[in-house]
Design goal:
Helix content is 37%, strand content 24%. The protein is built from 15 helices and 18 strands. By secondary structure, the protein is of the alpha/beta class. β7, α3 and β8 form a beta-alpha-beta unit. Strands 1, 2, 3, 4, 5, 15, 16, 17 and 18 form a 9-stranded mixed β-sheet that branches. The chain has 2 domains: 110 residues, Urease, subunit C, domain 1, CATH 2.30.40.10; 286 residues, TIM Barrel, CATH 3.20.20. The radius of gyration is 21 Å and the shape is globular. It starts with a strand and ends with a helix.
């Protein structure tokens, strides 16, 4: 199938960063095949008119838990450890694979509707999530959350995770990582085992690090180091690592992350809502760390909307540092697109010939986007995601004129209502 996006404004790479300029974009198969110049032999089956439209790379949610969407607004205004162990964990223990399937679809509806084309998911039920991704048409990087203490190659969770990963190998939109949950749930020997396994398999690691003050205090008390130092000593950073949160950094933490080329995913809304503070994003960027953006799960956010997250990232650090020059709109846009693609090692994140055709098309004839002045700034300071009109993933239209093409929304909503009633949510 060939798609022509005709005469639209588009956010494309330029010599000085992202530029907004008018282009015609040709999509052939799963790739961006041409910009302004029609590829040889191209046949356009679908034409999308670009009048009053802005084409951007699909947003990349670099850290989430899609099965948590059913917990939205059910564990609020609680301290982090109480939120996790007394409210969220008991609900997780009751979830079935079918629950995870419907909850993941609910998250994917929200993400597609707000311009996200890819998500990096730490899951409990890989089989059901891969099923949901196959149906929705989204691109996903998935890992099963792992906890343990000993170095044991026969560890049940790890073995099951490796078996589950086989389920998605025939789908080009699915890739996998290993997901040791966090230093407070994984002993150093267990982390070493996971790192060794990842190294053998040639894949990366997705882990939570330095999220709360309590985590730091306990790590100091029990191991006389920070969570970042703990992970480094256990060999986690010997493979490509995506570290979620990194809010409470101190001492040599930032230099360790930079030295080991760790990608950090900042989750502003979740970190604020749980009272965990603000990640030192400006300092990480200044040190050369690849900083990307995620929503975290809906149990702590309570949304899966990357436009809301971009706004938070653009604003809170200006207030915290008391300077409007802190973290610019172009830096925020990069965190939500190309930085996420770099962290996940995907051929996406920018509008260039040869990149995967993962695109979001926004309406400019809306109150929130009028007048059409600095559109890159508008994406961070004005848009709320509802402007997303059409979404293309892997060269296929999954939403057009706000109509989802791949998911039966009403069926998902009905299933979620039944699940929540059964779980007492």
């Amino acid at each position: 199938m060939g798609i022509v996006i005709r005469d639209a404004l588009a956010a494309v790479p330029g010599p000085d960063g992202i530029e907004i300029s008018r282009h015609t974009i040709y999509v052939a198969g799963d790739l961006i095949a041409g910009i302004d110049e029609m590829p040889a032999g191209f046949s356009g089956d679908e034409v999308v008119e670009g009048r009053n439209r802005l084409v951007i790379p699909g947003l990349i949610n670099a850290h989430t838990h899609t099965y948590m969407s059913m917990m939205r607004n059910s564990a609020d205004d609680l301290p982090f450890m109480e939120w996790l162990f007394e409210r969220v964990s008991p609900i997780e223990d009751q979830l079935t694979g079918e629950d995870a399937y419907w909850a993941s679809l609910l998250s994917q509806i929200e993400m597609i509707r707000s311009g996200t084309t890819t998500f990096n998911d730490m899951q409990m039920h890989i089989h059901q999530t891969t099923k949901a991704v196959r149906e929705s048409g989204m691109r996903a990087v998935i890992c099963r959350g792992l906890v343990g203490d000993a170095y044991d190659r026969e560890d049940t969770r790890l073995r099951e995770a490796l078996e589950e990963m086989e389920d998605g190998k025939d789908c080009s939109r699915l890739t996998f990582l290993l997901g040791p949950h966090a230093p407070y749930t994984c002993g150093p020997d267990y982390l070493r085992m996971v790192a060794d396994t990842a190294k053998t398999m040639g894949i990366g690691i997705h882990i939570h690090l330095s999220e709360s003050v309590t985590e730091i205090e306990n790590m100091r008390k029990e191991h006389d180091c920070t969570p970042i130092e703990y992970a480094a000593r256990a060999g986690v950073f010997e493979v490509p690592t995506i570290a979620a949160h990194c809010v409470q950094l101190e001492g040599e933490d930032i230099s360790i992350l930079a030295r080991h080329h760790v990608s950090v995913v900042t989750n502003p809304a979740s970190n604020m809502k749980l009272g965990n503070g603000f990640a030192p994003v400006q300092e990480l960027l200044d040190a050369g760390v690849n900083v990307c953006l995620g929503t975290d799960g809906a149990a702590s956010n309570n949304a899966q909307n990357m436009f809301r997250e971009m706004s938070h990232l653009a604003l809170i650090h200006k207030g915290w540092h008391r300077t409007p020059q802190c973290i610019s709109a172009p830096q925020v846009f990069e965190a939500a697109t190309s930085a996420g693609a770099k962290a996940l090692r995907l051929n996406t994140g920018s509008i260039e010939v040869g990149k995967k055709a993962d695109l979001a098309i926004l309406r400019l004839d809306t109150a929130s986007m009028m007048p059409n002045n600095n559109l890159l700034a508008a994406l961070c300071y004005s848009a709320d995601g509802s402007e997303t009109d059409t979404v293309i993933i892997d060269g296929k239209i999954v939403m057009q004129n706000r109509e989802l093409k791949t998911i039966d929304e009403e069926k998902v909503y009905a299933q979620i209502r039944r699940m929540c009633e059964r779980l007492g949510l």
